[in-house]
Description:
alpha/beta, Helicase, Ruva Protein, domain 3, two-stranded antiparallel sheet, 11 strands, Rossmann fold
Amino acid sequence: MPDETLDLIAQLRANIGRVVLGKEEAVRLCVVALLAGEHVLLEDVPGVGKTLLGKALARSVSGSFHRVQFTPDLLPTDITGGNIYHAQAGEFSFDPGPVFANIVLADEINRTTPRTQSALLEAMSEGQVSSDGQTYPLPRPFMVIATQNPLEFEGTYPLPESQLDRFLMRVSVGYPDRPAELEVLRTHREGEPVEGLAPVLACQQVVALQEAVRQVAVDEAIDRYLLDMVAATRTSDELHVGVSIRGALAWYRASQAAALVEGRRYVVPDDVKSLGVPVLAHRVIPKGYQHGGQRDTVETLVARLIESVVVPE
């Protein structure tokens, strides 16, 4: 692998790590999602650094960045834009919304209504926005980083399954350990360090890395291993809905990106296995499911199913 590719990825991880302290795994997963050309959902209790992580990743890329604070009164056109009548010209023209950016931070996405949440579906799936019969392409690269509080918190609207399925992975940030928390206190004395974070990658470099991900080799034995684990979710007596083919494809692409992040041009079983819970847990539905509150149970179940599949030699 060219040294330049490794250097770019290392610079990106290090730059984010300058302000997101003690969260190496969460940073790695977000970088994997970016290189896979997909979107990430950061879910955790308030105040643990979800927005900080999203802003640090966005500011590390020199493209356009928009942050949208999701509230109950937000409308779909507040995100996508819409046709506006201009009196001087005597005609309507499309006014792009904040989704027209390289990286969009959808902050507290589950505080707005499902109707507004669904405004992101086409953008996340197709990389475009449709309005009054016209289609408007989004810039490349395009990534949505959404944050949400756990569903048992007051004033939240659960994301529908179709929306969850558009996120490559769901990531928990968690509390930092004591040394990292002491460092947070020290570095935040005079303000937010993320505001001074300089970009280390141009958009063209991100697109080149995304194209390099698709060239990462995957042995047929790895293909079978991945599909064996997908099949285990579909035949489990504890799951009502298993992983879809879209989920399998997302896991495949994420494994390629994880290999590249680790400096390899080929996927190994650990690349696939390490991503199983963040990529799959939000895509399955356990039996007796009630919307919200069962994340730990589902993740434990998915991890157990993954462990039950024989790893290829």
